[in-house]
Protein backbone atom coordinates (compact mmCIF):
# COMPACT_ATOMS: atom_id res chain seq x y z
CA UNK A 1 0.00 0.00 0.00
CA UNK A 2 2.77 2.42 0.89
CA UNK A 3 4.63 1.94 -2.40
CA UNK A 4 1.39 2.53 -4.33
CA UNK A 5 0.84 5.73 -2.36
CA UNK A 6 4.36 6.92 -3.11
CA UNK A 7 3.84 6.23 -6.81
CA UNK A 8 0.55 8.12 -6.75
CA UNK A 9 2.17 11.12 -5.09
CA UNK A 10 4.97 11.14 -7.66
CA UNK A 11 2.43 10.93 -10.51
CA UNK A 12 0.40 13.82 -9.10
CA UNK A 13 3.54 15.92 -8.87
CA UNK A 14 4.47 15.08 -12.45
CA UNK A 15 1.00 15.90 -13.76
CA UNK A 16 1.01 19.19 -11.89
CA UNK A 17 4.37 20.08 -13.43
CA UNK A 18 3.18 19.21 -16.98
CA UNK A 19 -0.15 21.11 -16.89
CA UNK A 20 -0.30 23.75 -19.67
CA UNK A 21 0.13 27.36 -18.55
CA UNK A 22 -2.85 29.76 -18.65
CA UNK A 23 -2.77 32.85 -20.78
CA UNK A 24 -3.74 35.40 -18.17
CA UNK A 25 -1.80 36.54 -15.11
CA UNK A 26 -4.77 35.77 -12.86
CA UNK A 27 -5.03 32.26 -14.21
CA UNK A 28 -1.31 31.70 -13.63
CA UNK A 29 -1.58 32.95 -10.07
CA UNK A 30 -4.57 30.71 -9.48
CA UNK A 31 -2.71 27.74 -10.89
CA UNK A 32 0.31 28.45 -8.68
CA UNK A 33 -1.90 28.65 -5.60
CA UNK A 34 -3.64 25.43 -6.55
CA UNK A 35 -0.33 23.65 -7.07
CA UNK A 36 0.93 24.83 -3.67
CA UNK A 37 -2.24 23.52 -2.10
CA UNK A 38 -1.82 20.25 -3.99
CA UNK A 39 1.75 19.71 -2.86
CA UNK A 40 0.82 20.41 0.76
CA UNK A 41 -2.04 17.92 0.56
CA UNK A 42 0.25 15.41 -1.12
CA UNK A 43 2.99 15.64 1.49
CA UNK A 44 0.40 15.34 4.27
CA UNK A 45 -0.84 12.12 2.65
CA UNK A 46 2.76 10.93 2.33
CA UNK A 47 3.45 11.52 6.02
CA UNK A 48 0.33 9.56 6.99
CA UNK A 49 1.11 6.61 4.73
CA UNK A 50 4.77 6.60 5.77
CA UNK A 51 3.79 6.26 9.42
CA UNK A 52 1.28 3.50 8.63
CA UNK A 53 4.03 1.57 6.87
CA UNK A 54 6.35 1.96 9.86
CA UNK A 55 3.72 0.87 12.36
CA UNK A 56 2.91 -2.19 10.27
CA UNK A 57 6.42 -3.39 11.16
CA UNK A 58 6.12 -2.38 14.82
CA UNK A 59 2.97 -3.88 16.35
CA UNK A 60 3.86 -2.83 19.91
CA UNK A 61 4.23 0.86 19.07
CA UNK A 62 1.10 0.67 16.92
CA UNK A 63 -0.81 -0.74 19.88
CA UNK A 64 0.53 1.94 22.23
CA UNK A 65 -0.80 4.49 19.75
CA UNK A 66 -4.24 2.89 19.66
CA UNK A 67 -3.97 0.61 16.59
CA UNK A 68 -4.86 -2.88 17.85
CA UNK A 69 -5.06 -4.57 14.45
CA UNK A 70 -1.88 -6.58 15.13
CA UNK A 71 -2.34 -7.11 18.85
CA UNK A 72 -1.62 -10.83 18.52
CA UNK A 73 1.92 -10.30 17.23
CA UNK A 74 5.40 -9.62 18.58
CA UNK A 75 7.97 -7.80 16.44
CA UNK A 76 10.68 -9.72 14.63
CA UNK A 77 14.16 -9.50 16.19
CA UNK A 78 16.07 -10.69 13.14
CA UNK A 79 18.56 -9.08 10.76
CA UNK A 80 16.08 -9.63 7.92
CA UNK A 81 13.48 -7.59 9.82
CA UNK A 82 16.03 -4.86 10.58
CA UNK A 83 17.02 -4.78 6.90
CA UNK A 84 13.37 -4.41 5.89
CA UNK A 85 12.86 -1.53 8.30
CA UNK A 86 16.04 0.19 7.11
CA UNK A 87 15.05 -0.11 3.45
CA UNK A 88 11.63 1.31 4.24
CA UNK A 89 13.22 4.37 5.84
CA UNK A 90 15.59 4.81 2.89
CA UNK A 91 12.71 4.60 0.42
CA UNK A 92 10.67 7.08 2.42
CA UNK A 93 13.56 9.52 2.60
CA UNK A 94 14.02 9.29 -1.18
CA UNK A 95 10.32 10.03 -1.69
CA UNK A 96 10.50 12.97 0.69
CA UNK A 97 13.23 14.50 -1.48
CA UNK A 98 10.85 14.59 -4.47
CA UNK A 99 8.82 17.33 -2.78
CA UNK A 100 9.75 20.96 -3.42
CA UNK A 101 10.55 22.27 0.06
CA UNK A 102 10.00 25.90 -0.92
CA UNK A 103 6.45 25.12 -2.11
CA UNK A 104 5.41 23.83 1.31
CA UNK A 105 3.66 25.90 3.96
CA UNK A 106 5.49 26.69 7.19
CA UNK A 107 4.04 23.78 9.18
CA UNK A 108 4.86 21.26 6.48
CA UNK A 109 8.36 22.66 6.10
CA UNK A 110 8.94 21.91 9.78
CA UNK A 111 7.45 18.43 9.37
CA UNK A 112 9.68 17.89 6.32
CA UNK A 113 12.75 18.78 8.37
CA UNK A 114 11.76 16.56 11.30
CA UNK A 115 11.07 13.66 8.94
CA UNK A 116 14.42 14.18 7.20
CA UNK A 117 16.37 14.45 10.46
CA UNK A 118 14.80 11.37 12.04
CA UNK A 119 15.19 9.29 8.87
CA UNK A 120 18.84 10.28 8.45
CA UNK A 121 19.46 9.51 12.11
CA UNK A 122 17.90 6.06 11.74
CA UNK A 123 20.05 5.33 8.69
CA UNK A 124 23.22 6.53 10.44
CA UNK A 125 22.42 4.46 13.52
CA UNK A 126 22.06 1.26 11.53
CA UNK A 127 25.84 0.94 11.61
CA UNK A 128 25.42 0.30 15.32
CA UNK A 129 22.38 -1.99 15.18
CA UNK A 130 24.16 -4.72 17.18
CA UNK A 131 25.59 -2.35 19.78
CA UNK A 132 23.97 -1.88 23.14
CA UNK A 133 22.30 -4.43 25.36
CA UNK A 134 18.78 -5.66 24.47
CA UNK A 135 18.62 -7.28 27.92
CA UNK A 136 19.76 -5.19 30.86
CA UNK A 137 18.61 -4.18 34.33
CA UNK A 138 16.86 -1.03 33.09
CA UNK A 139 14.79 -2.43 30.25
CA UNK A 140 14.65 -5.38 27.90
CA UNK A 141 12.40 -8.13 26.69
CA UNK A 142 12.55 -9.98 30.00
CA UNK A 143 10.38 -7.24 31.54
CA UNK A 144 9.09 -5.66 28.33
CA UNK A 145 6.89 -8.67 27.52
CA UNK A 146 4.91 -8.69 30.78
CA UNK A 147 4.87 -4.89 31.00
CA UNK A 148 3.30 -4.58 27.55
CA UNK A 149 0.75 -7.31 28.14
CA UNK A 150 -0.25 -5.90 31.51
CA UNK A 151 -0.29 -2.15 30.78
CA UNK A 152 -1.01 -1.86 27.04
CA UNK A 153 -2.76 -4.99 25.80
CA UNK A 154 -6.46 -4.31 26.36
CA UNK A 155 -9.02 -7.09 26.55
CA UNK A 156 -12.41 -5.71 25.57
CA UNK A 157 -13.55 -8.75 23.59
CA UNK A 158 -12.97 -12.48 23.28
CA UNK A 159 -10.81 -11.73 20.21
CA UNK A 160 -8.54 -9.57 22.37
CA UNK A 161 -8.25 -12.42 24.89
CA UNK A 162 -7.40 -14.84 22.07
CA UNK A 163 -4.76 -12.35 20.83
CA UNK A 164 -3.25 -12.26 24.34
CA UNK A 165 -3.08 -16.07 24.35
CA UNK A 166 -1.48 -16.09 20.90
CA UNK A 167 1.15 -13.71 22.17
CA UNK A 168 1.84 -15.99 25.14
CA UNK A 169 2.37 -18.88 22.75
CA UNK A 170 4.65 -16.66 20.64
CA UNK A 171 7.07 -15.88 23.46
CA UNK A 172 9.18 -18.99 22.79
CA UNK A 173 9.90 -17.91 19.20
CA UNK A 174 10.56 -14.32 20.26
CA UNK A 175 13.02 -15.45 22.92
CA UNK A 176 14.72 -17.71 20.40
CA UNK A 177 15.41 -14.67 18.23
CA UNK A 178 16.61 -12.73 21.26
CA UNK A 179 19.00 -15.49 22.28
CA UNK A 180 20.42 -15.59 18.74
CA UNK A 181 20.90 -11.82 18.88
CA UNK A 182 22.74 -12.03 22.22
CA UNK A 183 25.03 -14.75 20.85
CA UNK A 184 25.79 -12.68 17.75
CA UNK A 185 26.63 -9.64 19.84
CA UNK A 186 28.89 -11.65 22.16
CA UNK A 187 30.77 -12.93 19.12
CA UNK A 188 31.40 -9.30 18.13
CA UNK A 189 32.71 -8.40 21.58
CA UNK A 190 29.53 -6.58 22.61
CA UNK A 191 28.42 -8.06 25.89
CA UNK A 192 26.90 -6.56 29.01
CA UNK A 193 29.21 -6.15 32.01
CA UNK A 194 29.16 -8.84 34.66
CA UNK A 195 27.03 -6.91 37.17
CA UNK A 196 24.04 -6.92 34.79
CA UNK A 197 23.38 -10.66 34.79
CA UNK A 198 22.15 -11.26 38.35
CA UNK A 199 19.53 -8.54 37.86
CA UNK A 200 18.16 -9.84 34.58
CA UNK A 201 18.31 -13.50 35.57
CA UNK A 202 16.34 -12.75 38.73
CA UNK A 203 13.76 -10.70 36.82
CA UNK A 204 13.36 -13.53 34.31
CA UNK A 205 13.03 -16.16 37.02
CA UNK A 206 10.46 -14.04 38.87
CA UNK A 207 8.14 -14.22 35.90
CA UNK A 208 8.04 -18.02 36.19
CA UNK A 209 6.73 -17.98 39.74
CA UNK A 210 3.13 -18.86 40.58
CA UNK A 211 0.48 -20.83 38.69
CA UNK A 212 0.71 -22.50 36.28
CA UNK A 213 4.49 -22.72 36.77
CA UNK A 214 4.38 -24.05 40.34
CA UNK A 215 1.95 -25.17 43.01
CA UNK A 216 2.40 -22.17 45.31
CA UNK A 217 -1.32 -21.53 45.26
CA UNK A 218 -0.97 -18.03 43.79
CA UNK A 219 -1.28 -16.98 40.16
CA UNK A 220 1.79 -15.81 38.27
CA UNK A 221 1.71 -12.12 37.35
CA UNK A 222 0.62 -12.85 33.77
CA UNK A 223 -2.06 -15.37 34.67
CA UNK A 224 -3.42 -12.99 37.30
CA UNK A 225 -3.49 -10.18 34.74
CA UNK A 226 -5.22 -12.34 32.13
CA UNK A 227 -7.75 -13.68 34.63
CA UNK A 228 -8.64 -10.14 35.75
CA UNK A 229 -9.06 -8.91 32.19
CA UNK A 230 -11.25 -11.85 31.18
CA UNK A 231 -13.38 -11.30 34.28
CA UNK A 232 -14.05 -7.79 32.98
CA UNK A 233 -15.74 -9.29 29.90
CA UNK A 234 -18.52 -10.75 32.08
CA UNK A 235 -18.69 -13.95 30.03
CA UNK A 236 -20.54 -17.11 31.01
CA UNK A 237 -18.44 -18.93 33.63
CA UNK A 238 -17.66 -21.89 31.37
CA UNK A 239 -16.40 -19.65 28.55
CA UNK A 240 -14.27 -17.56 30.91
CA UNK A 241 -12.79 -20.69 32.49
CA UNK A 242 -11.97 -22.08 29.05
CA UNK A 243 -10.06 -18.91 28.13
CA UNK A 244 -8.11 -18.99 31.41
CA UNK A 245 -7.27 -22.64 30.76
CA UNK A 246 -5.99 -21.74 27.29
CA UNK A 247 -3.85 -18.99 28.78
CA UNK A 248 -2.44 -21.40 31.38
CA UNK A 249 -1.52 -23.85 28.63
CA UNK A 250 0.10 -21.06 26.60
CA UNK A 251 2.14 -19.94 29.62
CA UNK A 252 3.52 -23.47 29.91
CA UNK A 253 3.97 -24.03 26.17
CA UNK A 254 5.26 -20.59 25.12
CA UNK A 255 6.37 -18.46 28.05
CA UNK A 256 8.07 -21.13 30.16
CA UNK A 257 10.38 -22.59 27.48
CA UNK A 258 11.06 -19.11 26.09
CA UNK A 259 12.18 -17.71 29.43
CA UNK A 260 14.09 -20.87 30.32
CA UNK A 261 16.06 -20.52 27.08
CA UNK A 262 16.82 -16.88 27.88
CA UNK A 263 17.89 -17.70 31.44
CA UNK A 264 20.21 -20.44 30.18
CA UNK A 265 21.79 -18.05 27.69
CA UNK A 266 22.19 -15.33 30.32
CA UNK A 267 23.94 -17.74 32.68
CA UNK A 268 26.27 -18.79 29.89
CA UNK A 269 27.11 -15.17 29.06
CA UNK A 270 27.58 -14.32 32.73
CA UNK A 271 30.42 -16.84 32.92
CA UNK A 272 32.37 -14.98 30.20
CA UNK A 273 31.37 -11.39 31.05
CA UNK A 274 34.04 -8.90 32.15
CA UNK A 275 34.03 -5.87 34.43
CA UNK A 276 34.98 -3.45 31.65
CA UNK A 277 32.04 -1.06 31.66
CA UNK A 278 32.47 1.67 29.04
CA UNK A 279 31.51 1.79 25.38
CA UNK A 280 35.19 2.33 24.61
CA UNK A 281 35.61 -1.47 24.90
CA UNK A 282 33.48 -2.07 21.77
CA UNK A 283 34.95 -2.26 18.26
CA UNK A 284 35.03 1.39 17.11
CA UNK A 285 33.68 2.26 20.54
CA UNK A 286 34.73 5.91 20.38
CA UNK A 287 32.79 6.45 17.15
CA UNK A 288 29.78 4.65 18.60
CA UNK A 289 29.80 6.86 21.69
CA UNK A 290 30.21 10.03 19.62
CA UNK A 291 27.09 9.04 17.67
CA UNK A 292 25.26 8.25 20.92
CA UNK A 293 26.05 11.75 22.24
CA UNK A 294 24.88 13.28 18.97
CA UNK A 295 21.62 11.32 19.13
CA UNK A 296 20.91 12.16 22.74
CA UNK A 297 21.92 15.83 22.87
CA UNK A 298 21.01 16.74 19.25
CA UNK A 299 24.25 18.73 19.24
CA UNK A 300 27.79 18.19 17.95
CA UNK A 301 29.34 18.50 21.42
CA UNK A 302 32.35 16.26 21.99
CA UNK A 303 32.74 14.04 25.03
CA UNK A 304 35.31 16.47 26.46
CA UNK A 305 32.96 19.43 25.99
CA UNK A 306 30.11 17.59 27.69
CA UNK A 307 32.44 16.59 30.55
CA UNK A 308 33.55 20.20 31.13
CA UNK A 309 29.99 21.57 31.09
CA UNK A 310 29.23 19.03 33.79
CA UNK A 311 32.13 20.12 35.98
CA UNK A 312 31.15 23.80 35.67
CA UNK A 313 27.55 23.15 36.68
CA UNK A 314 28.50 20.89 39.58
CA UNK A 315 30.43 23.80 41.06
CA UNK A 316 27.54 26.24 40.42
CA UNK A 317 25.01 24.00 42.17
CA UNK A 318 27.32 23.27 45.10
CA UNK A 319 27.50 27.03 45.70
CA UNK A 320 23.69 27.30 45.70
CA UNK A 321 23.48 24.39 48.15
CA UNK A 322 25.83 26.13 50.57
CA UNK A 323 23.39 29.06 50.62
CA UNK A 324 20.62 26.69 51.72
CA UNK A 325 22.93 25.28 54.40
CA UNK A 326 23.22 28.81 55.78
CA UNK A 327 19.45 29.33 55.54
CA UNK A 328 18.64 26.24 57.65
CA UNK A 329 21.47 26.99 60.09
CA UNK A 330 23.55 23.89 59.41
CA UNK A 331 27.16 24.17 60.56
CA UNK A 332 29.67 21.99 58.78
CA UNK A 333 30.94 21.13 55.32
CA UNK A 334 28.80 20.47 52.28
CA UNK A 335 29.70 16.78 52.47
CA UNK A 336 28.57 16.71 56.10
CA UNK A 337 25.29 18.33 55.05
CA UNK A 338 24.95 15.63 52.39
CA UNK A 339 25.38 12.98 55.06
CA UNK A 340 22.82 14.70 57.29
CA UNK A 341 20.16 14.71 54.55
CA UNK A 342 21.17 11.24 53.39
CA UNK A 343 20.77 9.56 56.77
CA UNK A 344 18.29 11.65 58.76
CA UNK A 345 15.13 9.59 59.38
CA UNK A 346 12.98 12.74 59.17
CA UNK A 347 13.71 12.84 55.43
CA UNK A 348 12.18 9.44 54.63
CA UNK A 349 8.84 7.70 54.94
CA UNK A 350 8.91 4.29 56.66
CA UNK A 351 9.71 1.31 54.47
CA UNK A 352 6.20 -0.07 55.06
CA UNK A 353 3.02 -0.27 53.01
CA UNK A 354 1.68 2.68 55.01
CA UNK A 355 4.85 4.67 54.36
CA UNK A 356 4.66 3.93 50.65
CA UNK A 357 1.05 5.05 50.49
CA UNK A 358 1.97 8.28 52.29
CA UNK A 359 4.62 8.93 49.64
CA UNK A 360 2.14 8.36 46.80
CA UNK A 361 -0.47 10.57 48.44
CA UNK A 362 2.02 13.40 48.92
CA UNK A 363 2.93 13.12 45.25
CA UNK A 364 -0.76 13.41 44.30
CA UNK A 365 -1.20 16.41 46.60
CA UNK A 366 1.82 18.18 45.09
CA UNK A 367 0.55 17.60 41.57
CA UNK A 368 -2.92 18.89 42.55
CA UNK A 369 -1.28 22.04 43.93
CA UNK A 370 0.61 22.50 40.67
CA UNK A 371 -2.58 21.99 38.63
CA UNK A 372 -4.16 24.94 40.41
CA UNK A 373 -1.28 27.23 39.42
CA UNK A 374 -0.86 26.01 35.83
CA UNK A 375 -3.32 28.48 34.18
CA UNK A 376 -1.07 31.39 35.16
CA UNK A 377 1.87 29.92 33.23
CA UNK A 378 0.32 27.80 30.46
CA UNK A 379 -2.41 28.35 27.90
CA UNK A 380 -1.53 25.12 26.07
CA UNK A 381 -2.37 22.11 28.28
CA UNK A 382 -3.21 18.47 27.56
CA UNK A 383 -6.60 16.76 27.74
CA UNK A 384 -5.19 13.42 28.90
CA UNK A 385 -5.57 12.59 32.61
CA UNK A 386 -2.62 11.52 34.76
CA UNK A 387 -2.25 9.13 37.70
CA UNK A 388 0.47 8.40 40.26
CA UNK A 389 1.29 4.73 40.83
CA UNK A 390 3.93 2.59 42.49
CA UNK A 391 6.02 0.40 40.19
CA UNK A 392 4.61 -3.13 40.12
CA UNK A 393 6.29 -5.67 42.40
CA UNK A 394 7.50 -7.94 39.60
CA UNK A 395 9.75 -5.26 38.12
CA UNK A 396 10.73 -3.21 41.17
CA UNK A 397 14.29 -4.56 41.26
CA UNK A 398 14.96 -3.84 37.60
CA UNK A 399 13.03 -0.59 37.07
CA UNK A 400 14.37 2.94 37.52
CA UNK A 401 13.69 5.28 40.43
CA UNK A 402 10.81 7.06 38.72
CA UNK A 403 9.49 7.36 35.19
CA UNK A 404 6.51 8.40 33.11
CA UNK A 405 4.34 6.13 30.96
CA UNK A 406 2.57 8.01 28.19
CA UNK A 407 -1.23 8.11 27.94
CA UNK A 408 -3.01 6.30 25.13
CA UNK A 409 -4.02 8.79 22.42
CA UNK A 410 -7.56 7.36 22.39
CA UNK A 411 -8.03 8.06 26.11
CA UNK A 412 -8.13 4.39 27.09
CA UNK A 413 -5.06 4.70 29.33
CA UNK A 414 -3.99 7.72 31.44
CA UNK A 415 -0.51 9.07 31.68
CA UNK A 416 1.20 7.42 34.64
CA UNK A 417 3.91 8.81 36.93
CA UNK A 418 5.54 5.68 38.35
CA UNK A 419 7.54 5.83 41.60
CA UNK A 420 9.73 2.85 42.49
CA UNK A 421 9.09 2.26 46.19
CA UNK A 422 10.95 -1.02 46.65
CA UNK A 423 13.20 0.69 49.21
CA UNK A 424 12.07 4.00 50.72
CA UNK A 425 15.65 4.88 51.64
CA UNK A 426 16.14 5.58 47.91
CA UNK A 427 13.23 8.07 47.86
CA UNK A 428 13.93 11.09 50.10
CA UNK A 429 10.92 13.25 50.81
CA UNK A 430 12.83 16.45 50.00
CA UNK A 431 13.23 15.32 46.36
CA UNK A 432 9.58 14.38 45.88
CA UNK A 433 8.38 17.84 44.89
CA UNK A 434 10.86 18.20 42.03
CA UNK A 435 10.27 14.58 41.00
CA UNK A 436 6.50 15.14 40.80
CA UNK A 437 6.91 18.21 38.59
CA UNK A 438 9.44 16.46 36.34
CA UNK A 439 7.60 13.19 35.75
CA UNK A 440 4.08 14.56 36.09
CA UNK A 441 2.79 18.11 35.77
CA UNK A 442 4.00 20.24 34.07
CA UNK A 443 6.86 17.92 33.04
CA UNK A 444 6.65 14.79 30.95
CA UNK A 445 2.87 14.50 31.16
CA UNK A 446 2.39 17.95 29.64
CA UNK A 447 5.11 17.67 27.02
CA UNK A 448 4.28 14.17 25.81
CA UNK A 449 0.49 14.44 25.99
CA UNK A 450 0.43 17.85 24.29
CA UNK A 451 2.59 16.42 21.53
CA UNK A 452 0.27 13.45 21.04
CA UNK A 453 -2.81 15.69 20.96
CA UNK A 454 -1.54 18.26 18.46
CA UNK A 455 -4.00 18.82 15.62
CA UNK A 456 -2.84 19.14 12.04
CA UNK A 457 0.57 17.66 12.90
CA UNK A 458 1.59 14.30 11.36
CA UNK A 459 1.62 11.31 13.71
CA UNK A 460 5.32 10.61 13.10
CA UNK A 461 6.11 14.11 14.35
CA UNK A 462 3.85 13.81 17.39
CA UNK A 463 5.69 10.71 18.59
CA UNK A 464 9.20 11.70 17.47
CA UNK A 465 11.85 11.31 20.16
CA UNK A 466 14.51 13.88 20.83
CA UNK A 467 15.83 13.05 24.28
CA UNK A 468 17.50 16.41 24.90
CA UNK A 469 14.19 18.16 24.29
CA UNK A 470 12.02 15.74 26.26
CA UNK A 471 14.29 15.29 29.25
CA UNK A 472 15.50 18.87 29.06
CA UNK A 473 11.87 19.95 29.41
CA UNK A 474 11.40 17.63 32.40
CA UNK A 475 14.42 19.10 34.17
CA UNK A 476 13.42 22.65 33.17
CA UNK A 477 10.03 22.20 34.85
CA UNK A 478 11.74 21.34 38.14
CA UNK A 479 13.21 24.85 38.22
CA UNK A 480 10.02 26.34 36.76
CA UNK A 481 8.28 25.18 39.93
CA UNK A 482 10.49 27.59 41.87
CA UNK A 483 9.62 30.42 39.49
CA UNK A 484 5.94 29.61 40.12
CA UNK A 485 6.34 30.04 43.88
CA UNK A 486 6.70 26.45 45.02
CA UNK A 487 9.47 24.84 47.14
CA UNK A 488 8.48 26.83 50.20
CA UNK A 489 10.37 24.37 52.40
CA UNK A 490 14.13 25.07 52.02
CA UNK A 491 14.78 21.33 52.18
CA UNK A 492 12.50 20.82 49.17
CA UNK A 493 14.49 23.51 47.38
CA UNK A 494 17.62 21.62 48.38
CA UNK A 495 15.98 18.53 46.87
CA UNK A 496 15.42 20.42 43.63
CA UNK A 497 19.08 21.41 43.56
CA UNK A 498 20.05 17.84 44.44
CA UNK A 499 18.20 16.56 41.40
CA UNK A 500 19.77 19.19 39.16
CA UNK A 501 23.16 18.34 40.64
CA UNK A 502 22.49 14.71 39.81
CA UNK A 503 22.00 15.65 36.16
CA UNK A 504 25.14 17.81 36.13
CA UNK A 505 27.15 14.94 37.60
CA UNK A 506 25.76 12.70 34.88
CA UNK A 507 27.64 14.75 32.28
CA UNK A 508 30.84 14.04 34.18
CA UNK A 509 30.37 10.34 34.92
CA UNK A 510 28.78 9.31 31.61
CA UNK A 511 31.66 10.75 29.62
CA UNK A 512 34.06 9.49 32.27
CA UNK A 513 32.84 5.91 31.89
CA UNK A 514 32.41 5.77 28.13
CA UNK A 515 35.17 8.08 26.89
CA UNK A 516 37.76 8.47 29.64
CA UNK A 517 37.77 4.79 30.69
CA UNK A 518 36.64 5.36 34.25
CA UNK A 519 35.82 2.19 36.12
CA UNK A 520 32.43 1.55 37.67
CA UNK A 521 34.02 2.19 41.09
CA UNK A 522 35.54 5.53 40.02
CA UNK A 523 32.15 6.72 38.79
CA UNK A 524 30.43 5.54 41.98
CA UNK A 525 33.00 7.38 44.09
CA UNK A 526 32.48 10.61 42.12
CA UNK A 527 28.71 10.56 42.61
CA UNK A 528 29.03 9.60 46.28
CA UNK A 529 31.40 12.49 47.00
CA UNK A 530 29.52 15.13 45.04
CA UNK A 531 25.83 14.38 45.69
CA UNK A 532 23.64 13.74 48.75
CA UNK A 533 22.13 10.56 47.28
CA UNK A 534 22.42 7.31 49.24
CA UNK A 535 24.92 4.66 48.18
CA UNK A 536 22.27 2.32 46.77
CA UNK A 537 20.90 5.13 44.63
CA UNK A 538 24.40 5.96 43.40
CA UNK A 539 25.21 2.37 42.45
CA UNK A 540 21.92 1.92 40.59
CA UNK A 541 22.49 5.17 38.70
CA UNK A 542 26.03 4.34 37.59
CA UNK A 543 24.87 0.92 36.47
CA UNK A 544 22.15 2.63 34.46
CA UNK A 545 24.59 4.97 32.73
CA UNK A 546 26.82 2.03 31.87
CA UNK A 547 24.12 0.19 29.94
CA UNK A 548 22.67 3.32 28.25
CA UNK A 549 25.68 5.21 26.83
CA UNK A 550 25.03 8.92 26.33
CA UNK A 551 21.38 8.94 27.41
CA UNK A 552 22.06 10.55 30.76
CA UNK A 553 23.76 13.57 29.15
CA UNK A 554 20.56 14.73 27.43
CA UNK A 555 18.84 16.11 30.54
CA UNK A 556 21.26 18.88 31.50
CA UNK A 557 22.19 19.80 27.93
CA UNK A 558 18.51 20.22 27.06
CA UNK A 559 17.62 22.11 30.22
CA UNK A 560 20.49 24.56 29.83
CA UNK A 561 19.40 25.33 26.27
CA UNK A 562 15.76 25.94 27.28
CA UNK A 563 16.88 28.21 30.13
CA UNK A 564 19.25 30.06 27.79
CA UNK A 565 16.45 30.63 25.27
CA UNK A 566 14.02 31.78 27.98
CA UNK A 567 16.54 34.29 29.31
CA UNK A 568 17.17 35.53 25.78
CA UNK A 569 13.42 36.05 25.30
CA UNK A 570 13.12 37.86 28.63
CA UNK A 571 16.05 40.15 27.81
CA UNK A 572 14.82 41.03 24.31
CA UNK A 573 11.07 41.23 24.97
CA UNK A 574 10.98 42.88 28.37
CA UNK A 575 7.33 43.48 29.34
CA UNK A 576 6.15 41.64 26.22
CA UNK A 577 7.55 38.37 27.57
CA UNK A 578 5.09 35.88 29.05
CA UNK A 579 5.72 32.43 30.47
CA UNK A 580 2.58 31.15 28.76
CA UNK A 581 3.75 32.41 25.38
CA UNK A 582 7.22 30.97 25.82
CA UNK A 583 5.87 27.59 26.92
CA UNK A 584 3.51 27.51 23.97
CA UNK A 585 6.26 28.09 21.42
CA UNK A 586 8.38 25.40 23.08
CA UNK A 587 5.61 22.78 23.16
CA UNK A 588 3.36 23.52 20.20
CA UNK A 589 5.38 21.55 17.62
CA UNK A 590 6.14 18.46 19.67
CA UNK A 591 9.68 17.32 20.39
CA UNK A 592 12.31 18.91 18.14
CA UNK A 593 16.12 19.05 18.00
CA UNK A 594 17.58 21.87 20.09
CA UNK A 595 18.71 23.76 16.98
CA UNK A 596 15.14 23.88 15.65
CA UNK A 597 13.85 24.85 19.09
CA UNK A 598 16.21 27.83 19.01
CA UNK A 599 14.93 28.84 15.56
CA UNK A 600 11.33 28.63 16.77
CA UNK A 601 12.00 30.78 19.84
CA UNK A 602 13.96 33.32 17.80
CA UNK A 603 11.06 33.57 15.35
CA UNK A 604 8.61 34.09 18.23
CA UNK A 605 10.79 36.85 19.69
CA UNK A 606 11.03 38.54 16.29
CA UNK A 607 7.25 38.40 15.78
CA UNK A 608 6.60 40.10 19.12
CA UNK A 609 9.23 42.80 18.56
CA UNK A 610 7.97 43.76 15.12
From TrEMBL:
InterPro entries: DUF885. This is Uncharacterized conserved protein, DUF885 familyt. PROSITE patterns: PROKAR_LIPOPROTEIN. PANTHER family: DUF885 DOMAIN-CONTAINING PROTEIN (PTHR33361:SF16), GLR0591 PROTEIN (PTHR33361). It comes from the Bacteria. It holds the Pfam family DUF885.
